[in-house]
Batch of 4 targets.
Target 1
Amino acid sequence: MQIDSGTTAWMLISTGLVLLMIPGLAMFYGGLVRTKNVIGTMMHSFVTLAVIGVLWVAVGYSLAFGPNVAGGLIGWNWDYFFLKGIDESIVNGVPEYVIAMFQGKFAIITPALISGAIAERVTFRGYLIFITLWFISVYCPLAHWIWATDGWLYLSGPKGVIDLAGGLVIHVSAGTSALVAAIFLGKRYGFPHNTMNPNNLVMTLMGAGLLWVGWFGFNAGSTVSSGMDAARALTMTQVSASAGVLMWMLIEYIKFKKFTSLGFVSGILAGLVVITPAAGVVQPIGAIILGCLSSLICFYALELKNKLGYDDSLDCFGIHGVGSGFGVLALSFLIRDSWLKDASKINGSNWSNTDQFLIQLKGMGTTILLAGVATYIICLLVEKTVGFRLTKSEELAGLDHTEHSETGYGLINLN
């Protein structure tokens, strides 16, 4: 097969854009925590580049995209072991190395998202073990079931579960795991009575901007094309994010008569996560609807968190889990007519929005069950072995001092 230079160039760019989201997430999360935890929190994002970066090449790509083994519970292909067998491989006109690296960036950012829910209170050694076990037991199976061509959810219905860029594989799984881990670890000392203000909202704004830019590679790159499908996905991503911001600003103004930067970045994420599964199947009006409704639902999900009292430090569940989970289901009723017609031809009879909703619901239930149960077991294992939760004295001193012996802002009072 000949290399398609246009598609390959776009996939190389997309891989770089998704990689850009890691420092973007580090800045986003790092600005939201207290000064004494800024380095420790940013390290939680950056270290996934190393840990998952190696694991993906060694076994992850094979587990996720190899042919079915163990009755379809996972994949495996010895040619993908350390990528030793793809040196000359070309897939759909693109060198398979590029496909593997693009998919690897998704694997890297997913456990980093979870770190936002457990920020400011976990040991670094425990976090390293957690993301390693979580990657193998949650991410790889879900990626195989939903994205591998012989995955059982990929084969559900005429065109499978719709999850273009990881609404289920990435955001619902991370959001569910974030909630379980946050509840397992318990609240930060002083939460919610002590003030825990962000240390640098300027950094958070810049991080959110980088995430927005990177998301074009995230969604449009997932089409593995440089044509119409990529153009649609890129457009829906922009439209949904913009709508999400405007809706969050409107809600804040109605309730508080203010427009906050924190609300602005929350709206960006709400709009982006909801369109992640849907960018390939909806039209601009559908993207606007999804973006607006996601901000509305996520806003009140955060209000509910405050009432329930669990400590999801940086709202991973309230934004990623709730927003993207809503998108996974709601897209069923906003699908382009041409997509439904194609599905009907494959199915041999009319395929309706309700039919697709039931497939999406199956994917949602599977993701929540696997992520929830596995995360609890992993948290228990980590806590009982190397220790997961910081001691009270370590937490009060801050991650930067106790875990890294550094400070984020030089000679500054960390209290």
Target 2
Amino acid sequence: MTRETYGLLNEYMQSQMDDAAHDREHIYRVLYNAVDIASYEKGVDLDVLVAACLLHDVGRREQFANPTVCHAEVGAEKAYDFLMGHGFAEGFAAHVRDCVLTHRFRKARPPESTEAKILFDADKLDAVGTMGIARTLNYKGQVGDPLYNMGPDGIPSDGAGDTVNSFFHEYKFKMERLYDGFYTKRGRELAATRKKAAEAFYKALLEECRGPYIVGRPVLDEMLNGEGRRGRET
């Protein structure tokens, strides 16, 4: 791929990035992860891979405006139309489209080509570890989801049994399950190095969220019941 072609794709990508959790730096991290993984694989079409990495989230704007829209589906068609409109071969554009279409974490539509599998793994690397946590918290703030939901016992839920979106729900239902879904050996190795830090962060954050309810709330109850008056008067 020439610098001119890279610049064309990069410029289009940047024009489509509105979401702070899926900004151009996310795209670059995915791209850099992808070329790292590709260096351990054989027969990779690097031109297709680079194009797919740069264009894989161009449908995010549409999904952010309407959460029922799948950004991978919209982005695949946008990528294909852009490439065809700029003189790329149909086979190349179709291959990139397929990579973009299957990069999302969905069991019903797994990636098939080597390039699609590398893109999938590279994108998921940015969703694991503490980077994944930071990006998830960023995104949850943008869409207005809470950090946690309350359990039936009046204590913040760990997310495991939740049906309402929150950070802890996202962690239990998606983030902690990502580590077993990598397709490449290099991707699995890189993901494994990030797992412990994410688990430790989740555990510490949950304890800090629950602590005030467990320790402070009984003190308040005692005070409101009149048992704390003596402490106030002295």
Target 3
Amino acid sequence: MDRVLSGMQASGRLHLGNLIGALQNWVKLQEKYDCFYFIADWHGLSTGYENPFAIKESTNDLLINFLAAGLDPDKCTIFLQSKILQHAELHLLLSMITPLGWLERVPTYKEKQQELKDRDLSTYGFLGYPLLQTADIIIYKAKYVPVGVDQVPHLEISREIARRFNYLYKEVFPEPEALLTEFPKVPGIDGRKMSKSYDNAIYLSDSPEAAEQKLRTMMTDPARKRRMDKGAPELSPVFHLHKIFSSKEEQDEVAEGCRTAGIGCVDCKKILIKNIFKALEPIWQKRSELIANPKAVTEIVEKGTEKARKAAEGTMVIVREAMGLDKI
């Protein structure tokens, strides 16, 4: 089977947006491809270097949620980036051949600096993030990387770097292709995109009580100040969650009720909470089982990491030979 590679940065707890935008898609892909999924704990240092202990906590949360959401270690390879030193070796070698201008023009380089003004991101680790990301992908000779349309430019630099290496030395790396995926925008409780940075998320680790409380206070159409006010469902973040979690019939019911004031926001949210809980309850149950059996979780990631390490070292043998480093 063709290989798929994807990872998540260890920079905080996973939330509903991560589940809908990535994890559910990963679960489907493991049925069709040779999938390698990893926890990018080194990447977490690029913006969270001042508190590496938080990265360890995030790493544990990611691993439990990977498994609770349905990733099957018998169908995919789950591993930890920092346990495979070959990633760092390839990252170093790629840094020797990559023009600085390529890194500076990556769209998120300046965007994130503007977004995260509370920390100093004038570091090589932050600038060189795309290089480490490239090493993560091409060291496994992945054919596909699942991305949304807006992320294609980020993958293009990996293709350019692989192409440059092949031109300078030897055809070693296939150019990774985008496996275009439709990622619905998941609104947070304040109406903005759900994000841990905005503290507006429903986390997979939230208790049912905490999740319900957040959803009950979620922003709706600002025009509906009183129960009898008519609203526009398209302006309500709650309705956008209905479009993800509720049936077509329920969506039609709450949309019509909103426009005619036939249903109040409290009742609208009750339907949404019921449907979100239907999706989250199996995950909560699996999380409880995994938390109660940490040894089994450790064994899964150790086994996956060992498999990934062998694949990575196999590639690095070829890389060293292509660059003449095996003769030094």
Target 4
Amino acid sequence: MKRLKNLFRNETVFCVSFVLAVLSSFVVWPDAGYLAYPDYRTLALLFCLMILVAGLQSLGIFSMLGHVLLTKVHSIRGLSLVMILLCFFSSMVITNDVSLITFVPFTLLIFRMGGQTRRVLKLVVLETIAANLGSMATPIGNPQNLYLYSVSGLTTAEFAWATLPYAGLSLLLLAAALFTERDEPLFGVTVKEPAENTASSLLRPAAPFFALMALCLLVVFRVLPYQPVLLCVMAAVLLLNRRLYLSVDYFLLLTFLCFFVFIGNMKRVPALNDLLLSVVQGRELLTGILASQVISNVPAAILLSGFASDFSALLTGVNLGGLGTLIASLASLISFKFFSREYPDQKGAFLKEFTVWNAAFLAVLAAAAGLLMKF
């Protein structure tokens, strides 16, 4: 019983998706049609990208990048700007959650060294927003982008129109939020690049991971089929570092699989299918934003995709829907956990600051989306 409670607490979204899949199987009994439910291409790409990013992270690539950039700054504002830009742009390649796992602890350490703990709360919140919004700019930036780009048939131009205007606007908003505060000199902090993690020493071990990542990108953009690339990645990781198999978020893959089963079953019930179509179609932006606030944006993307007709609007909706509540994007929980572990007495302050800034960004970006979609 204790293990079940821990599982539900740590993997709530998976548990909910599993229950929905099981319940729906009593409505539509398992048959050969179930095999057509999953999008195997998305599952394969998610697995490959997660294990390759874990490989690069294990080499210290991203931490080294942060150290190098931080040697160039001499003020609190400069430090904050570098950390926000790191989260924003790195999330486009290594996903929003990995970006936060890498750079939020780094931020907490640097600010504690500089005795600037009073300003770190706002910065961690802005870093979280930066990672969530920066990740929308590429098909591999987050799981919902990868999934929707895979199943929707959107062209690269259509994907860009649904994401890049809001990523660009969010970068301006982040800069504005940062420059509202008074700048101060950065005293008492000396950041040096670790001698053992120089760029030259990491290039050779990282090269195979970058090459495999390039193959995955060719699959994302529909140049290569996913099957041989999946086999290539699995074989290469066995040779390079088989421990990386333990770094994969298998619960995320199982969550996708459970939602595929649930949606597939719902579409085979005419009354439910018609009801969901009437609710979602024509309201993809709104339903994407609202559903994300309750079940987070990845499950919202999977659930609504089965009943949407305008995938561009849905893509925008679930990406902007990552703003708002703490669970709107599960990556935000990473920042909350790191911050509350460092400052356990400031959990309430974090939630207040997080909600205010997320609501402000969501209001501006949702309004912009409403205007742009009229053209």
